C-alpha cells in the first residue's frame, strides 16, 4: 500500500511539473563544420541535466545527424517515423547516456521542409505535446546558414553560435550572425568558443566577433563561455561516449560545467504567450507554410 501511495504522489508531482514548467527552446549552430558543434550540444545537454534540469536533444543536422553516433547508439526510430505517422512523438524519443532523451534526425528533416499544410499541423500537434515535458529542448542544427537552419534559429528562444579561434571559423560565425540580422530577424545570440588553449585566446576570439557585430550590425553578442582544448574529447569520440561521461573531471568537462551554470543563471524569465514550445511552433509554422 505504501508503494502504491508513493507511486501516486510521484504521478501527481509529475503532472504538476508539466503544467507549471515552461520549456525553453535553444538552437545550437555554427558558421562552418568541424568546430565541435554537435559534441558541444550533447555534452552541454548532459551537463544541464546533471545540474537538475530535464533536457531533450533534437538532432536537426540535416543529412549529417550524428548525436546518436557520438553516443554509440543505433536509434530504433527517428523523426522520419513521426512524419510518416508510423510513430508518435513519444515513441521516437530515445534515451542515451545518463537517461538523456534525444530525437534522431536523419532523412526525416528533408521531408519536414516539404510537408503539406495538414502534415505541418500534425507535426506541430505532436511536438506541442513536449511542452512542459522538459526544461530545455536543444536543437543541434547543420553548420552554415541553410534555409532549414534559418528556420530553427529564428523560431528558437535563443541561439548559441559555436566557433573556434581559427580565422575561418571566426569569419563564418560572424557571417551567419550577419545574415540572420540582415533578414530582419530579432534573434538572441550567444557565443561559445571551443578548443581554446587558454582563457585569453577564448576572450580574444569572442571579442573579435562581438566588437564587429556591435560596430556594423549594432547588436550585442554576449559570450557564454569557452571550452578548453582537451585530448580527452577526441578519446571520448573514439570510444563513442560523451566526454563529460567518460572523463568528468577533464578540462573540457569543467569548462562545460562552468558554461552551463552561466547559461542557466543568465536565462530571462519565460514569456508565457510567446515563449516555450508554443511560441517556437508558431514561428516555425509561419516559415514552413
Description:
Pfam families: ParA. Keywords: ATP-binding, Nucleotide-binding. It is a single chain. By secondary structure, this protein is of the alpha/beta class. Helix 2 (37-50) packs across helix 13, helix 8 runs antiparallel to helix 14 and helix 9 runs parallel beside helix 10. Helix 10 links the parallel strand 7 (189-196) and strand 8 (223-228). The protein contains 14 helices and eight strands. The termini are far apart. The protein has a single domain (21-288), classed as Rossmann fold (3-Layer(aba) Sandwich). Strands 3-4-2-5-1-6-7-8 form an eight-stranded mixed sheet, sandwiched between helices.
Please provide a brief summary of the model:
This protein has 289 residues and is of the alpha/beta class. The chain is built from 14 helices and 8 strands.
Instruction: Say how many strands there are.
Output: 8
Main sheet attributes: strand count, strand direction, barrel closure: 8 strands, mixed
What overall geometry do the principal axes of the alpha carbons give?
Answer: globular
CATH topology: Rossmann fold
How far is the N terminus from the C terminus?
Answer: 52 Å
Determine the structural class based on helices, strands and strand pairing: alpha/beta
The helicity comes to 40-55%
Total helices: the number is 14
The low-confidence parts are: 1-16
The Cα radius of gyration reads 19 Å
Order of helices and strands: HEHEHHHEEHHEHEHEHEHHHH
Classified by CATH, the class is Alpha Beta
Question: What is the overall pLDDT average?
Answer: 87
Total separate domains? 1
CATH homology superfamily name: P-loop containing nucleotide triphosphate hydrolases
- What strand line-up does the widest sheet have? 3-4-2-5-1-6-7-8
Percent of sequence in beta strands: 15-25%
Named at the architecture level, the CATH assignment is 3-Layer(aba) Sandwich
